[in-house]
Write a structure and sequence with these properties.
With about 600 residues, this protein is an alpha/beta fold. The chain is built from 22 helices and 17 strands. It starts with 9 loop residues before the first strand and ends with a helix. The model has no long low-confidence stretch (mean pLDDT about 90).
């Protein structure tokens, strides 16, 4: 008698996030870079769910008209017949996955009913919530409806996994659990709401962490809705993960659950076939930064660009969370050390973060424009002298060197003289490139510490309160190119659940400073012994106070400044060599484990 072999169920995975097709912050990078590795594993059985904003989607989204091409498309058709506005198509990123986008603004009429049910069924209070939270609640409900409909049709034929990112995607998760919808859920928190608020407002946050009352703090910071959704999502999911051991401790206190797994973040790493290629790019983009520095500093005074190092820090403006306070303190100490030892090296520190401003400082733009004019004039003179010199030398009867002055006509001499006169200034180079709407911690520190680009200072500050892009009139580089042109990335964060900025340095072969309180720094210390030798410097912020950490960092920077060029090149090679560790093709396995575990727990 023949025994029927049971055909294994196929598996489908949905990944849900507010930042699918909607760039807001770091989670967009997580998901977008993870897509190729996910598509490689799941092929046609991988879908992303996100919000629909026509403006943002126009450049990243391509609609699919045939809704019968997959079970997800058929569910979209059913939701449309229920009166919801839902888009279905491809996300135009590497891997080109299929996405379902929900138009929350189009379903705002349902908001009061959604709020009533969240309170009635889950005791989630949503009184007086701001506009963004209201959109998130409607989005969460549409996701819940979609997954419920999809599971009703497909749960018998397929194992359905759902990966939620952050509270903004997850207000529907407690409802899925209550209704026992046949999906296996994983919830990943990238940073807790309360952690972010408390770290920047409470001194000694980490030592006080076990003693916080989450409800009391949520009321104090007026984030009750967000914190409650986050907590209930974490407790409703089959599996809870977070991005680092640092954040795992917060989950226990604020979310009332210890994470099952840590799922570290990666990037889609593109290595060059020719090993030296990334060094060539460093040189090329460094030249572009040289141009900015020439235009910015040289009208006031000059220094040797061959002996100049470019440091940078970037990220959201959170003065103490991102470690801007520590960075500036360490730079002031580094400046003093370099002056004391009579060093002729110059460090230019770029601080790139978004702050409200009126416009780019007109003097900064003016000196850049005059530099371009100077370059143009010199090129014209060079061409004129070259042509006339060649003719004079070829036709010359004697062996004498011709007088080059005779080859420049009066027009170009006058133009060059005028350009030089408008080029030089008595003013000090600006330490902030834009006219800020108000002073902040960075400008305040620079003024008080007199770190204002005096000529004798060995450390110069360029605070750029806007993101860098290729259309930027000051640099003409995109952010990735700018990073490659620098010598060192500096990110000694106090609160940083993961930390993409140092990781972006590593994959571009740029040494970096991080801290043991950032997820990235913590992870590096766990997987690597000789990380400092590889160009990753980890500041001890767990057991040192601010002054000790500033001292440690100033020493590290001073040591870096004293390195020979050859040693810096070797270090860049060593940094770039470890970038594969952070490729999603290697790190995806952490998520695979989480999804497998969720399925095991879901099965009766």
């Amino acid at each position: 008698m023949e025994t029927k072999t049971k055909t294994p169920k196929k598996s489908i995975l949905f990944e849900v996030a507010w930042e699918v097709c909607n760039q807001v912050g770091g989670i967009y990078t997580v998901i977008r870079t993870k897509v190729p590795a996910m598509v490689e594993k799941w092929n046609e059985d991988y879908f992303l769910l996100g919000p629909y904003f026509p403006q943002k989607a126009s450049s990243e989204f391509e609609p699919i008209t045939d809704l019968d091409d997959s079970p997800a498309g058929q569910t979209v058709a059913r939701m449309r017949s229920m009166g919801y506005s839902v888009q279905y198509g491809y996300w135009l990123v590497t891997g080109k996955p299929r996405v379902v986008l929900f138009d929350a603004l189009g379903s705002m009429a349902k908001l009061d009913q959604i709020k009533f049910e969240l309170w009635e069924n889950h005791r989630i209070s949503t009184l007086n919530t701001e506009d963004l939270v209201n959109q998130v609640l409607v989005f969460g409900e549409m996701v819940r409806v979609f997954l419920t409909e999809f599971a009703a049709e497909n749960a018998k034929k397929a194992d359905i996994g759902v990966q939620f990112h952050e509270w903004m995607a997850s207000s529907g998760l407690p409802g899925l659990k209550k209704d026992n919808v046949k999906v296996a859920t994983t919830f990943t928190t990238h940073a807790t709401m309360l952690g972010r608020y408390l770290a920047q407002n409470v001194d000694g946050f980490y030592s006080k962490l076990p003693f916080f009352d989450w409800e009391h703090e949520a009321k104090h910071y007026n984030i009750v809705t967000q914190a409650t959704i986050e907590r209930q999502a974490a407790q409703s999911a089959q599996v809870l993960t977070t991005v680092s051991d640092v954040t795992a401790r917060e989950c226990e206190v604020f979310l009332g659950r210890i994470p099952d797994l840590v799922t570290p973040n990666g990037l889609n790493v593109m290595r060059f076939q020719a090993v030296h290629e990334f060094q060539n790019l460093h040189v090329r983009y460094k030249e572009k930064i040289h141009e900015f520095v020439l235009g910015h500093f040289f009208p006031s005074y000059s220094f040797d660009l061959d002996k100049t190092l470019y440091f940078f820090t970037s990220g959201r403006y959170e003065y103490s969370n991102k470690g801007y306070d520590l960075t500036l303190e360490a730079l002031a100490r580094l400046n003093w050390k370099m002056i004391q030892t009579g060093m002729d090296t110059t460090v230019v520190m770029f601080i790139v973060t978004k702050q409200p401003y009126f416009s780019i400082n007109p003097d900064v733009l003016q000196s850049r424009a005059v530099l371009d004019e100077l370059q143009e004039t010199c090129t014209a003179i060079e061409k004129q002298v070259g042509e006339k010199l060649f003719l004079a030398t070829a036709a010359g009867a004697d062996h004498k060197m011709p007088d080059l002055n005779n080859f420049v006509d009066e027009y170009w001499r006058l133009r060059l003289r005028r350009t030089i006169q408008s080029w030089k200034t008595e003013e000090l180079p600006a330490y902030v490139t834009h006219d800020l709407k108000q002073e902040d911690g960075i400008t305040d520190f620079c003024r008080k510490a007199n770190l204002v680009n005096n000529e004798r200072d060995r450390v110069k500050i360029v605070y750029h309160p806007d993101f860098i892009s290729s259309t930027n009139p000051l640099f003409g580089l995109d952010y990735g190119q700018f990073v490659r042109g620098c010598h060192l990335g500096v990110f000694p964060s106090y609160y940083e659940p993961w930390g993409y900025t140092p990781l972006e340095c590593v994959v571009r072969g740029v040494p970096t400073v991080t801290s043991d309180l950032s997820g990235f720094g913590d992870y590096i210390m766990q997987i690597m012994r000789d990380y400092e030798n590889r160009g990753i410097y980890v500041i001890n912020r767990k057991s040192q106070n601010f002054t000790q950490a500033a001292d440690q960092m100033a020493d590290i920077l001073f040591k870096f400044v004293k390195m020979q060029r050859r040693d810096r090149i070797m270090q860049r090679n060593r940094v770039e060599n470890i970038s594969d560790v952070f490729d999603w093709t290697n790190l995806r396995s952490y998520y695979d484990t989480a999804h497998d575990l969720a399925l095991k727990r879901k099965k009766p």
